[in-house]
Write a structure and sequence with these properties.
Layout: H1 3-26, E1 40-43, E2 48-51, H2 53-72
Antiparallel strand pairs: 1-2
């Protein structure tokens, strides 16, 4: 392992802590996450299928932008 790997692990840990704190304190205001237009939800009597397509695309774009910014620093 190199020092670069250590930096990535620290950044990932800080991101997880910030995400956890955000969810803990603002969970009642984040109800729209996972319920965006384009998310697939099928609910029947004894069956539920949920596939958050739009949410995953937005998270992917956000994470890609964050990683791009970190590499520029």
């Amino acid at each position: 392992m190199s020092a670069e790997t250590g930096k990535y692990i620290i950044v990932a840990g800080v991101f997880i802590i910030v995400a956890g704190i955000t969810i803990y304190f603002f969970h009642d205001k984040l109800h729209w996450i996972g319920r965006l237009p384009g998310d697939i939800r099928i609910e029947k009597e004894n069956f539920r299928f949920y596939f958050p397509v739009t949410t995953m695309i937005l998270l992917s774009i956000l994470i890609s932008l964050l990683l791009w910014l970190l590499r520029k620093l």
